[in-house]
Write a structure and sequence with these properties.
about 60 residues, mainly alpha
Length: about 60
């Protein structure tokens, strides 16, 4: 099994587990749906989170 196929299968299994958990626990689905709607309305939070991740990731790199 090559690494690309293995990664694809792992992604499929992860998505399947998430879907099954959301079906089994409707409260989690409502929470995820509400969070997604809030993020759409407050898109700047996503941008701030991305900026924070980028700053943390780039802080550990040595300059060229």
């Amino acid at each position: 099994m090559n690494p690309r196929l293995r990664a694809f299968l792992q992604l499929c299994v992860l998505l399947l587990v998430v879907v099954v958990l959301l079906i089994l626990f409707p409260a989690a689905f409502r929470f995820a749906e509400g969070a997604a709607r809030s993020i759409v309305r407050l898109w700047w939070l996503v941008l701030l989170l991305a900026l924070g991740i980028w700053l943390i990731w780039s802080a550990g790199r040595k300059p060229k």
